[in-house]
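the three lines:
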Amino acid sequence: MTLDSNIPAGPLGQKWTKHKMDSKLINPANKRKFNIIVVGSGLAGGAAAATLSELGYNVKCFCYQDSPRRAHSIAAQGGINAAKNYQNDGDSVYRLFYDTLKGGDFRSREANVHRLSEVSLNIIDQCVAQGVPFAREYGGLLDNRSFGGAQVKRTFYSRGQTGQQLLIGCYQALAKEISGGNVEMFPRTEMLDLVVVDGHSKGIIVRDLVTGEVTSHAADAVILATGGYGNVFYLSTNAMGCNVMAAYRAHKRGALFANPCYTQIHPTCIPVSGDYQSKLTLMSESLRNDGRIWVPKSKETAEKIRKGELKAKDVAEEDRDYYLERKYPAFGNLCPRDIASRSAKQVCDDGRGVAPSGKGVYLDFEQPISVQGQQAIAAKYGNLFQMYEKISGDNPYETPMQIYPAVHYTMGGLWVDYNLMSNIPGLHVLGEANFSDHGANRLGASALMQGLADGYFVIPTTIANYLATQTPGSVTTDHPEFKRCRDEVKDRVSTLLQIRGKRTVDSFHRELGLQIWDNCGMARTPETLNAALKRIPEIRDEFWANVNVTGTGKELNMELEKAGRVADFLEFGELLCHDALDRAESCGGHFRADHQFTEDDEEVKDGRTQPGEAKRHDDKFSYVAAWEHNGTGKAPILHKEDLVFENVAPSIRSYK
Amino acid sequence: MNALSCKLCSFWSSSIGKKTVVALTGIVLLLFLPGHLIGNLLFFLGPDSINAYGIFLHELGHGAVIWIARFTLLACLIAHVVATIQLVRQNKAARETQYACKATVTATRSSRLMIWSGLTILFFIIFHILHYTVRIAYDFDGPAFQTMLDGHQTLNIHQMMLVGFSNGPVTIFYIIAITCLCSHLSHGVSSVFQTLGLRTEKSASAITAFGNLYAFAIWAGFLSMPIAILFFGVGK
Amino acid sequence: MANLNLTLKVWRQARPGDAGSIETYDAKDIPEEASFLEMLDIVNERLIPAGGDPIHFDHDCREGICGACSLTINGVPHGPEGGITTCQLHMRKFKDGDTIWIEPFRAKAFPVIKDLVVDRSAFDRIIESGGYISVRTGSAPDAHAILVPKEAADASFEAAACIGCGACVAACKNASAMLFVSAKASHLNHLPQGQPEKHERVLAMVKTMDNEGFGNCTNQYECEAVCPKEISADNIAKLNRDYSAAKSHDAVV
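prediction for all of em together
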């Protein structure tokens, strides 16, 4: 299989313009004849469904939530980047492109990232026109802040609820199209399979989560905008329902899965407090602007804190290790997410963690409060402090917060070309569900940008390149392939319901998550990965022999829903570990402990970086790893798309 | 129906429209209360004052004003009652299954008893009109209720009040009804501001205080007469 | 770190239209650090091996923003704390030995689907009837072409913070949706972008609200008191005002 990224020729800055010009058009009378399925109603899916409907296509949109307004894009807090340069501080489309490419540790496509950067301008215009209430200055102009260590202020925001506001804008656009009759919305409906007819993606099989009915839907093209797979770790900042099923079903039908090992761990989450824990809560990264991160210098002191014999306040200043300030004097507590996360893991592995579980570090506001006053801190972080107190019961004005890293975002996803089409013709993948724009690490405030770019501006243009080659309505649900897939889905559902074993679905999910977190989490080695690759199939076998899924398939049955998702995670987890094992380098969110800089490296000696930092091997791994499914329990087949850098020479990411 | 009456119908049939009707008619009824009260308080100045006031009202605008006022008040009352009863029926229908565990976070008791206080007031108004205006509930036609004022024979309102409020059951009903009115007003007055879109968070406490003060003033004013007559023998 | 022993009184209903009833469950040894929904997870984890049917409830993000969770706890939507959703409520707010009543958000317009799960699609239909600004993708002018006074932007944001959970309806003695509808109307009507469709929006949304079978607002402010995003009842006053203006405009112009 050869992977053609279909990147247009020509200078970087003109590729997208040229591609739009070269793209096929479908005349308005014909658009009405094309049916498009959109799975997912978050920023990418909702934006795509609304825009394609505006263009005149017939759209069916599916989501598992009870309303498209609840998609997990809603939880993004910080903001959305755009190269507007409204602050006149030197930002430009090229600079946003460069920062994103560098932030992604040079593991993404130049052309895609540049397009994202170009389109970022239109996104802000579109959202403002929709009525998204971005923060404003007194003169009525839009306000911006600097985010995630960026040197320019390019982030647009609505307090700490930017994702929510953007999603509501998108949801409203979708609502308008639903009322116009061009979009048919299917809430509480889950995609259980992709139907591929003669090599082309022509429909999906879904289950109505309320009635349990399994139905087929045919279309001329299918769009997946189903988010990331962070819940393979069980505990993550994702919503409980986030899952990999749609993407993984497509993968099993032939779609390549790219770079699954690129997972982002967010440094500032509330630590795990017990086995029953279902979810990790993110505390905004903005807290690191003032908060100081530390642990005790000695293990003994940490031990006493864990046992509750000693309080943070009782630890003398000289007995504290402000490890980020110590290791990264220039960036201090504001160093990038992956570095902050890994450092927290290191000190906790060292036995100096302060949470009762041993996995937590302090985020302390004592000094900023004494310097700036409690009022100033309350004005900046009042809401966050309140939220923390509600969850933990501790008052951050008096005792330091405890934080620990948690899985947050997944950069990997289904492989797509420049048109956002996967290797299965007709199957398009948008947003977090694809792999395309963030490389090995995503910068803060870029996820919202990518979702909306894909949905509002890219797919409405590029999907025509596929549709123009198709006769509308050529495949209907009468095709035998639909019946075959539907039967398979029904069989799978009834198999799950017939096992009636002894263990709950959640217990399997927790066990899998722990395996992945311990062995393929913040630091990975061939030993841990091989251990996971040995253990995951065992868990999977036990699942299919001993899971207890209660109830029937003919009603709202949340255990059944979870079982289907966990079953796919149990296969996907293996793929994740395979990719992490194959990529014998460290880059972005993928840290291989056996590939880090040491005192002996030239780059350390000449001061470009320091020991313990991630070590890339551009000569061997400057490629996209796109995996082909080869049967459950069998090693997947690797296909490589080489990354070509014509405009930016990859360099060492240094935050010293 | 012409276009405008169509619009009026749709206004009436909408939830906000109907509530606006309740608020606007409520204002009329609210404005009536102090006028009525001040007239009644003339009782304390002696028979001649209140009886002269009665004549004044009846002769204002050659007798037209009192009828205009009566019809306006009656129309407002009917609209107020019909609209609220319809709204309450819709409200009951909007929650078919009740909570097994009921709780109230902030709603005042008087706000939750509006329909009951309102209906009590309605029955009271009917009784009150039959009692003193139509005078069929009690025989005020005898010569004992006529008096001479400025050389003309006229109705002795002062005497009617004395007799009316000397009756225990009537007075107890009156006191209950006026207390219901007070409760009704304590929510109703501030509610008018909200329904007409004139309340804000900043002005809320002032509006609530005004409503409560208004309700209390009306309560105290109307109860002063029966209490003075029944318990202190004033005017006898 | 004490653990709690609780008695739960939970509404169980197998399917839409069924009678349903309150069932009693013992919830023993519940860590007080657990969230309310995690407490229910624990109860379910014990129910399943015992052959019971797990209690169904809506939830998703578990961080107070998606608006999926929807329990009426001891008669109060989202529980006793105020300013939070059920998923943000933690067990340390309860005492050992407490009896906790857990019921669905009750309203005729929110029919029960199963146990504590209700159908809130009426809210979607209200938005579909006019809760948007009509702007085609790609047709927007530059973002700075529209100046929005900070005060208007902030007021709009305060209203737009609504998560559409339906607690306002569940708490209202009349099951009125006025806080939800008014929040959406305020969000858009405060902005210059929202002016062209202001009258139509207000009329259409109120009409849909009425048709969906919600009750009428009687200005008791239960909605505001339980709203996890603390949306102000000022929005209701504004909607009342805007509605009368729209009706007058509609009748005369």
